[in-house]
């Protein structure tokens, strides 16, 4: 089992920055990839970014160039640096981890005001 706990959400004005963190605990040695998804009100949960255990990253087109995902293996933590935030980035952001199944955090709210 893997437990994921997010932190770092909040309210920010358009153009501002936020950094999300997700710390994993439990059977972390089995984690092959971690990342972030987001879900806006009334919409489906969408992929944002991911990073493999080897450091290979992938981004949604809507955030590429503005968001950066990174991981600190010593701290079992993955980060999402979000720059130049837009109102359409407003959503609940969920941490995701994958071993031989998906694991999810409880989510953290990010609100970008115009």
Characterize the structure shown:
The protein is an all-beta fold and 114 residues long. The protein has strands at residues 2-7, 10-13, 18-26, 33-39, 45-52, 57-59, 67-72, 77-82, 91-98, 102-104, 108-113. The strands form two sheets. Strands 2, 4, 5, 6, 9, 10 and 11 form a seven-stranded mixed β-sheet that branches. A four-stranded antiparallel β-sheet has the order 1-3-8-7, with no helix packed on it.
List the helices and strands and how they pair.
Blueprint: E1 2-7, E2 10-13, E3 18-26, E4 33-39, E5 45-52, E6 57-59, E7 67-72, E8 77-82, E9 91-98, E10 102-104, E11 108-113
Parallel strand pairs: 2-11
Antiparallel strand pairs: 1-3, 3-8, 4-5, 4-9, 5-6, 7-8, 9-10, 9-11
Share of helix, binned: under 10%
- Content-based structural category: mainly beta
Instruction: Tell the overall outline.
Output: globular
How large is the share of residues in beta strands?
over 45%
Distance between the termini: 40 Å
- Helices and strands, in order, run as EEEEEEEEEEE
Topology, number of strands: 11
Main pleated sheet: 7 strands, mixed
Ranges where pLDDT stays below 50 over 5 or more residues in a row are none
Residue-averaged pLDDT, rounded? 95
Query: Helix count?
Result: 0
Gyration radius, to the nearest Å?
13 Å
